[in-house]
Task: structure prediction
Amino acid sequence: MTAAYRARAMADAGLVGIAGECALCHPSGALWFPDLRLLAVSDLHLEKGSALARRGVLVPPYDTATTLLRLQAVIAEYEPRIVVSLGDSFHDGWGAERLAAPFREKLELLIAGREWFWIAGNHDPDAPTGLPGDAVRELAVGRLRFRHEPSLHEAEGEVAGHLHPCARIVQRGRSIRRRCFAGDGRRMIMPAFGAYTGSLNVLESAYHGLFDHGRLMAYLLGAHRIFALPGSMLRPG
Result:
């Protein structure tokens, strides 16, 4: 097996390096750091459905249940010691107060026995009401820095969310657009984990200046695996 083939196989398995730290991109949209036993998720947007309903936008009220089931599954798979939720964990500052009792109990069980960090987001800048865990603006773990919004000035080791990245490719006349992790070896921007979240193409202007485009990789989420694609294959839209 050649070095190039091995590197591509590792990338397609979701294995990535961020500032020298090994991580695994999971098809759910979670990011697992095995050496740290740390699991990161971003942009859960819990209780988005109830927030929309309060504004008269009626959508099926299943987003929190779906997102928590997905989170429960990935936590059961890895049994992390540390969980970092990278901001916009709730769709607004009152989302935690609107949690139905069964959802609150499920979330408390997931938090129990772990170090759990709520990173402040633009939708939820304050600690979630009545839930355990530590609320912080950002978190440094070794060479890594976890924050909600990516910084234009501090790329090395940054793991961020906020932008809800996706990527689009065209092959054999067929267009494919999927949520993705986006990284260049220095920083990683994570996809939104929540059930009712949109996405923004990594070639949009909001990402300008964030990546070395010669090293940009998009790790597209498949149903059961990750598909690693170089930035040169990506298309707008």
